[in-house]
Design a protein that fits this description.
5-stranded mixed β-sheet, Beta Polymerase, domain 2, Ubiquitin-like (UB roll), globular, 3 domains, alpha+beta, Hypothetical protein af1432, TGS-like, 3-stranded antiparallel β-sheet
């Protein structure tokens, strides 16, 4: 069926060329190959091959449905809608973004196809005029990379950012190439020595290993980290410049490897992170430890299973690869009977509900840039549940995220067992406990001064007693 779809797309795009001069079918094929590498299902790969057919050829969606079925046609229709989103500065196209989130919520595969499409467009950006290069790169950094991050698609997010970086900030890119990347190369040589020592130790302990490799930090991610206050452009202060990554068959093996690593090398205090027992909100799972390695140099080591690795690289797409999503019939349109999205994707439903509740485009964009596309933190409830919030969120935002009743009756908060004021900014890793007063009449309008999320502000306005 995929071969048939390729031949159909080849015929539909016959005679068409890209700005690079190559045949148009190369783009369709590159999109489909990326989707296949992610392990996506057949319908998605076919839709990847056909995604530009209705817009750019004489063939219609009706033709596609007749030849490949309604599921493929629906996916292609969703991509066609997303293709119409044009970047004109983030303030000017909130309506198009609303449509995009509705398409995502109706079938998350549409945005996965769009990510694959966007990746190949970025790879061939050099053939476009400079103004268009920058526009597409900015859109990719401000819209597509954050969505990929929220979907747990680390590999895709990283590639989108790295491909966009030289067009959005060429001076910074050149500085990174000139000053920083040579130091990364030196660190790679050191990591190879670490890997040899560790591989021998694991073999001696008869521990089965799927792979051990060095993972250099991506250039755009590294640049942003260097700009932060503790680092101040000093690359020597960054411990995960190049990390060693160990992939082993099972969760038990992960913890076994961690013990062996700590027998070999002394860990840094406070630098062991267990994202297996406490995954990140986007589903990322792994063990991270930072140790004093050979020659006393500091090195980060990441340990995970193949399933965790696929989740870290491809996020939501990994569910198709490992069949963890179960029956795909669960992916129904919002509002359909029995519709469910995985809990960690509830933010997509939030975006759809906002677009119904917030008619003012500027207010919608403000909430969007803060709640959806801004930096995220994850905070724990006293029971260990993870709450995903925007950076600088407060206990009031946390309370309303847990439940409206808790927010309305919030009387105080403890962060890490310490009483704090309700306007205190939360940080990743904090444990937040909300103190409630069931006799409280409702929230205080004063909370609007420091509440950060759209949901919290809306509920405060709606439920605060009238003065």
């Amino acid at each position: 069926m995929v071969k048939l779809a390729f031949e159909y797309a080849q015929e539909a795009h016959r005679g068409q060329t890209r700005k690079s001069g190559g045949p148009y079918i190369e783009h369709c094929l590159a999109t489909a190959i990326t989707l296949a590498q992610m392990g996506m299902d057949q319908e998605t790969i076919i839709a990847g091959l056909l995604h530009d057919v209705p817009e750019d050829t004489a063939f219609s969606l009706v033709d596609i449905e007749k030849n490949f079925g309604s599921e493929v046609a629906t996916l292609v229709a969703g991509i066609t809608k997303l293709g119409k989103i044009k970047y004109r500065g983030i303030e000017r196209y909130s309506e198009n973004l609303r449509k995009m989130f509705i398409s995502m919520a109706q079938d998350i595969r549409t945005i996965v196809i769009k990510m694959a499409d966007r990746l190949h467009n970025l790879e061939t950006l050099q053939y476009l005029p400079a103004k268009k290069q920058r526009r597409i790169a900015e859109e990719s950094l401000e819209i597509y990379a954050p969505i990929a991050d929220r979907l747990g698609m680390g590999q895709i997010k990283g590639e989108i950012e790295d491909q966009s970086f030289p067009y959005v900030n060429p001076e910074a890119f050149e500085w990174m190439q000139r000053e920083i990347l040579p130091k990364v190369e030196l660190k790679k040589e050191y990591i190879e020595r670490v890997i040899k020592v560790l591989a021998k130790e694991l073999a001696d302990k008869k521990l089965k290993v799927v792979s051990i490799s060095g993972r250099p930090k991506r250039i755009y991610s590294l640049y942003h980290k260097l700009l932060k206050a503790p680092y101040d452009r000093d690359v020597s202060k960054i411990y995960d410049l190049v990390a060693a990554r160990v992939i082993v068959p099972s969760v038990a093996d992960c913890y076994h490897v961690l013990g062996i690593v700590h027998q070999l090398w002394k860990p840094l205090r406070g630098r062991v992170k267990d994202f297996i027992s406490q995954p990140k909100p986007n589903g990322y799972r792994s063990l991270h430890t930072t140790v004093f390695g050979p020659e006393g140099k500091i090195v980060e080591i990441q340990i995970r299973t193949p399933q965790m690795h696929a989740q870290a690289e491809y996020g939501i797409a990994a569910h198709w690869y490992y069949k963890e999503a179960g029956d795909r019939a669960n992916w129904r349109r919002i509002g359909d009977r029995g519709h469910t999205l995985p809990k960690k994707l509830k933010w997509i439903e939030d975006l759809v509900s906002w677009q119904k509740e917030i008619s003012d485009s500027q207010l919608y964009l403000t909430s969007l840039t803060l709640d959806a596309f801004g930096n995220r933190i994850f905070v724990f409830t006293p029971k260990g549940d993870v709450i995903d919030l925007p950076e600088a969120a407060t206990p009031v935002d946390f309370a309303y995220h847990v439940h409206t009743f808790i927010g309305d009756h919030c009387a105080g908060a403890r962060i890490n067992n310490q009483l704090v004021s309700l306007d205190t900014a939360l940080k990743s890793g904090d444990v937040c406990e909300i103190i409630t007063d069931k006799n409280r009449k409702g929230p205080s309008r004063d909370w609007l001064r420091f509440a950060k999320t759209t949901a919290a502000k809306a509920k405060i306005r709606a439920n605060a007693p009238r003065r």
